[in-house]
């Protein structure tokens, strides 16, 4: 495939600075490679391709990535280049505490510095669990050498008593039934062992599949790659194809700065909305855009959400799973349905435009991938709220919320911390009813720190037992992309830095209007001022280590929660070789 650019020469590749010169330093480099048992001919005079692998024993989403790395290696070798595998931090969503979001920026830094500090000409980024996709892409965009993303792929479907079961979404659903007393412990334990049947990312339209699909739509992956189940033979072949393709990309010098443009960002946003994707994508897209020197505001995503309906019938907005989406034609089929909203001329890693990539795509199941005039849900994938409670913005996912709460006014029940909430939420004497607005403070990027997925606040047991399954809930935290409900998240500025959320008290009246895009607490300016004067900043949760660095340099949600010193696309000098 050709991008119309003359092919690079061997002498112009980065790796040659390390390996080619006839001097003592390069002698040592070649010597150490041969220490591995390699012949000189295996690495000298060839592009060096990194496989950045986020495999981990504690990340079941990535349990198969050592085998996929072997397939990628095979593709690289067949294309005439030299593969090297470099391990990177594996952000297993479930196991990493307090939250993988705390470490997304660390993975971004690691990816960038792994590529910069080694003799690497191009990279295959191997990952897929929620924060690994944006983290690796942020690092690759900043490094700006040829890079292709190889997604881990979703796990296989499961069924329970004739019902389709989606990871994450049904964990919350079944938990509520267990708390309400409708599922016995013996059955609960049985569900624990069967709901996730294979390696791979969540099989719902959670953050993992949202971000891998967005990556593909923005041009970072091969066509259809994000939809292939992890355990499908097509996934093995796709990995090998990534290895082969990155070698051509090196010769073509097809790096992110050439294809990650305003047009590709438009395609990512449109895909996000049509999929009914995770609310987390709003943060990650802003962060990735910033790394490429592009500006992206919440209002731009809100505008897209108003015009592009949710057409992917996938949990949590719909009732199907990623395996069904794959059989329906995968992401290329969905992109074909939303062509009017795409920049089809945007370049991709194939060396072709997005329009060329999806020219032959077919929707094989209109029940799974709906036409634009037959949306899955009445609400959009995203609504950006503003008001005196969130002057810099907050978001809600209307497609996964209850329509009866689209306009709501209720008494606030406020928790100062997640620990307090978890200790008190199921008290039988809790003063709460279905119309109460539950508020959680100090779940934001600085306050937690790391902005954990606490935003899908639990419904009190006394209400679950009454049949209540949704309420309006508000926090400065995030929520899992697999979750659902009338949850307002990413309230900014957050409570820990003195945002208005810090001043809300139990008993205040809160008004939500999704159609009007407003969220307000009914307090006078004088009362706000009185509470502001009495407010004191909480002490930092950490005094040392990466967490302290995070607290001191992380931006707020509307700026992507990136580090202030990593934003933008200023060039970093190549390391000296001496």
- Give the overall form: globular
| Helical/strand content category | alpha/beta
Please give the radius of gyration in angstroms: 24 Å
Distance between the first and last residues' Cα: 37 Å
Number of domains: 3
CATH third-level topology of the largest domain? Rossmann fold
Helicity level: 25-40%
Number of strands: 14
What percentage of the residues does DSSP assign to strands (E)? 5-15%
- Name the CATH superfamily classification of the largest domain: Response regulator
Give structural notes:
- The structure is a single chain.
- The protein is α/β, with parallel strands linked by helices and 578 residues long.
- The protein has three domains: 46-157 and 197-357, Rossmann fold (3-Layer(aba) Sandwich); 158-194, no CATH class; 383-542 and 549-553, IlvD/EDD C-terminal domain-like (Glucose Oxidase, domain 1, 3-Layer(bba) Sandwich).
- 35% of the residues lie in helices and 12% in strands.
- The chain has an eight-stranded mixed sheet.
- The relative contact order is 0.11.
Summarize the structure.
The chain is built from 21 helices and 14 strands. The chain has helices spanning 15-19, 24-35, 40-43, 65-78, 101-117, 132-143, 169-180, 185-194, 207-217, 233-252, 256-259, 262-275, 280-291, 298-307, 322-327, 330-337, 354-357, 418-424, 461-464, 525-534, 545-553, and strands at residues 48-53, 82-87, 122-127, 147-151, 158-160, 163-165, 383-385, 393-396, 407-415, 437-440, 473-475, 487-492, 509-513, 518-521.
